[in-house]
From TrEMBL, chains A, B, C, D:
The entry's keywords: Carbohydrate metabolism, Cytoplasm, Isomerase, Manganese, Metal-binding
GO molecular function, one term: isomerase activity
Keyword Glycosyltransferase: no
Source organism superkingdom: Bacteria
PROSITE patterns in alphabetical order: XYLOSE_ISOMERASE
Taxonomic source organism: Dictyobacter halimunensis
Keyword Magnesium: no
Segments traversing the membrane: none
Protein name: Xylose isomerase
Compartments, record wording: Cytoplasm
Gene3D superfamilies per record: Divalent-metal-dependent TIM barrel enzymes
Record domain Xylose isomerase-like TIM barrel: where: 59-284
């Protein structure tokens, strides 16, 4: 059993709001309190932490102290590149002054990452993209995306950076929208310290085959981190792991074994209407149970079936495990 | 030319927020100020107004005065059935006390509608539905939806009510999700004063053919109101009219002529990154231009093509008008 | 355990072709041979049989004999309303002579159904619909669909009829495209002997929640038959049961218990690249295994969770069963 | 006005069949007759021709003669890599003997291309991919795809090759499924003579922004050919150009000007229920009309709007042209 360490995006323990429930789904939660809630889960060892921190006057020292107190490590720092001032874009904003602000915020995130011993700085440029046909010059959008991230990455070759792609939301079309396109853009950056955060739900949402796409990224040496969740494949619903796409989640975990991923696995959920601590526990329980299922997987039988592209045989190997009856095996 | 009166949902002139830009896309706008912005558009004659009003202590009298001052009429009152307390549902909330609160808010909306001379009370029960497989008892969800709205509708037979369906958001699955399903639920209510607000964008989003679906609703005598906007068909993007689905928007406007819709046409947009007044003006300009196109439509040629299900001939009639060159006609 | 009888659409044992592999995925198989292949599965007790039969000169007597010999019953007769001559529609064809041909073929199917003791005649009017915007007059499409089927149904009140809806293919827009819309059209027919064949894959494809939609149909007394398969939710892939949507298939089978469906369950698969007999066996093994899972389902725990709309608790009840470890339960 | 030369895939003048209308939508048409039908269109100058040819005993000499007689040039040769024997894959078939057959057919296509003076050999490996989770080893699928095409390409460095990507059909998941992924695979081939056929409909279907994606391909020097058609974005409907996505088709044609595409433009339609010659004429009329619209496009106004990412201003520039009234301009 791959005994993965678990982590989470800190946002899953904070306040959720959307365009309808403008009074939010629950009370405000500052970064310190969110770290404490993460610790409540019991299995969260690392966090992806947003910067600027949530809460008035919360300092780096306080965050470091909260992490130390709870035994949690900072895994990543994710700058808020998608707030009001970046609504038309961060690295691709039409105004060069705002583009510079995005770069400055990226640079600031590096500083925080060093102070908190985080492993990487994550870019999720949620406002970079467009909403309407004819709205932007696509070549300039590409160039600005590449140049902006390159600029931050070159400023600190000792830091690892990672881009998290998503098809859309909040823009109707986001710039970094698939694994393959992000790999091409990273090529164009021409730097060695930029890779990809592979978010399982975003891969479902991009209509990728996650078990395939993660191997594509890994083979090119660009896999920096893994985030897990689930959705209905038409939106970034950020649900608990395995609750809709159980079989493909299992296949994804099998792929992580193939590429010998050592972890950690970070949860990226938005439990709008659920208890965040319980939502994290549910996902971890599911992942561990799926890992036990994989421990029992007959790899030879599966390889033999895949060697023939034999869909029914491959499926039987898997469904027999999930349905746990031996009934399937008896038949063959 | 159908000389429609125009209107809008008042929300398009207020503040937008989403789960990422939690500092919102612009400043707060109270109901009074939103009415004034609507008036700035120049062609907005009616408004769908949310209740409770936005802004501290805004009173019905103040709203009535603002309407009078700007020459705008209240077309509809839409109660906020989708705020924090209704996050698990309004008419379908598991707690009967919250269900009663939803009914009470509906009843209050009737009162406001009478005070502002609004033509109907609109229900958009955005939180009624579910997010996960196995989460709810579907029969109870149906029954509670039907009973809740019936209860409000029966409390005032003199008032018109209308349900606005949408496939999803904020729930991953909303209860009233298509025109046909909403018609069935209305049947089950067994009251005469509940109909449908047909939102063009929601119909696109539900993967309906809007020109077909609006006729289905109208033939059953349940069409109460029309809202217009556009989207990319996979989310309720609430964009300016005709910017993506120009041909189907034209077809929809043609269908409104077929059913002899007298108007008004309400805009339902969320111009997150645009000027709201300009966003409304753009849509109105487009609709009026499309109406002029329809004025020139060769109805006999179109009917002849449709009589043969002749797609190419029907398309040529339409594309010739849009591309405005006469080139197409010369060919035939 | 619901000890369902199993059946299949006979087409799954015949030849498959598509627009690319125009030399077909395998050899021709006539109706007699297809019945024999169905019998090979070992658990197929009933068949939905296309008329006209496949193969030169195959007679009703021969089919009856083959059924008798194999111990299989005819469950339904499905007339080929979607061949070349009906390419612009069957009941909705622009030419009234072709519409009459569709009615005549429906009438002939009744006769065959009586001769083979089939329980119902199924309509799958795959060519009724449209492909292009502006191509058809939607009201006439609706009326012709309703009138055509009503006409066949009225011709034999002793026979049961059932419509199988599908969103699209071969038309880009099929007329009977969802459960709710089909229920409305059936209402308009004003006859008692027309209901719905609920195809699980078509419900996925229509972006319905199958466990919800089947209850909607059943509560209105219109559920005639159940067909099972799976797909990727964006096309009618006709795959083996439970291979993609395992959790929702389980939820669907649970819903069949709720409505006390007595069976049979028919498979509707197109195993283009697989052995048809094995493809059927795989599905039956999966369904039986899922039924055993349901036998162990803690209905009280699930009802309690659903009573609170508690997604995480409901999911844990289910995932604990599928992942079979007890790990989940220990946690609570 | 870009005075493009037009062409077509020869298949659009041949017989169509699908899995339901197994008696086909019309009579058989051999390659010679298809060339003659293409010539009937009046504006078709080049053809993408499938090999093996359709029709018993049709020879290269006969095809060359028919081309000469009609004044049409062979633009591309597309080998039938997706017939029955390749149903589990061509370059990725599990059996190395079939993989070799695919390579041999590719080599044969080169020979035909030379004999007919075609500019490139097109690969559309429609059966390379998978249908079920767990069915294949994704890394092997990638390697086999890359190696197979590299092998053919290396066999004749003087010939140009081009891959046409598509998301799915006939496989539920095709290997070459997007522009970005195909670019990555071409990189891995390490040869200079393999590029991309950019099919507008496939780009819509892949949920790309075609005007963006074609520039991505062109900037990397991999754009070999352009095919046009339209669809409903959820399937490869192969409809007449501009009939659904008029605005995005206009944006795509504008992008072709940006990259200074010199043509030709090939039509790739499957007019199942329409006259093929008329279907081609409709598309050409539409494209020419859109080109005239582009001639009138105020490039400075558009560039200014795009320089600000000003969606409404950019849209007004475009809608004013399409709605042809000047009304929009008067407003500004």
């Amino acid at each position: 059993m791959a005994n993965y360490e678990f982590g989470a995006g800190i946002w899953m323990f904070q306040q959720f709001i959307d365009r309808y429930a403008t009074d939010a789904y629950g009370p405000e939660v500052d970064t310190i309190k969110a770290i404490e809630k993460a610790a409540e889960v019991g299995d969260i060892r690392v966090l992806d932490i947003n910067y600027p921190f949530a809460g008035d006057g919360v300092t780096v020292a306080e965050v470091r102290e909260a992490l130390k107190r709870t035994g949690i490590r900072a895994q990543a720092i994710t700058p808020h590149l998608y707030m009001r001032e970046f609504q038309l874009g961060s690295f691709t904003h039409p105004d060069p002054k705002i583009r510079q602000k995005a770069i400055d915020l990226g640079t600031k995130a590096i500083e925080i990452a060093h102070e908190l011993d985080a492993r990487y700085v994550k870019f999720w440029p949620g406002q970079d993209g467009f909403d309407y046909p004819f709205q932007v010059d696509y070549q300039r959008l590409w160039d600005n995306s590449v140049e902006g991230i390159r600029s931050v990455a070159q400023s600190d070759p000792s830091m690892q950076f990672a881009i998290e792609y998503k098809a859309k939301e909040p823009r109707s079309h986001m710039f970094f929208n698939s694994s393959a396109r992000t790999l091409l853009a990273i090529e164009d950056m021409g730097v060695d310290n930029v890779g990809i955060v592979f978010d399982l739900g975003h891969s479902f949402f991009a209509k990728e085959t996650p078990a395939e796409a993660v191997q594509l990224v890994a083979r090119r040496g660009k896999l920096v981190s893994i985030e897990l969740n689930d959705n209905w494949r038409e939106w970034d619903d950020d649900m608990a792991v395995g609750t809709v796409h159980l079989i493909e989640t299992l296949e994804f975990l099998a792929a992580l074994r193939t590429i010998q991923w050592q972890g950690p696995l970070l949860l990226d959920q938005f439990p709008f209407r659920e208890n965040s601590v319980e939502a994290a526990r549910s996902s971890i329980l599911t992942i561990r149970a799926l890992e036990r299922v994989l421990d029992r997987l007959d790899l030879n039988a599966l390889a033999a079936a895949q060697g023939r592209h034999d869909a029914l045989a491959a499926q039987r190997v898997v469904l027999d495990l999930l349905l746990g009856t031996g009934l399937v095996k008896d038949h063959d």
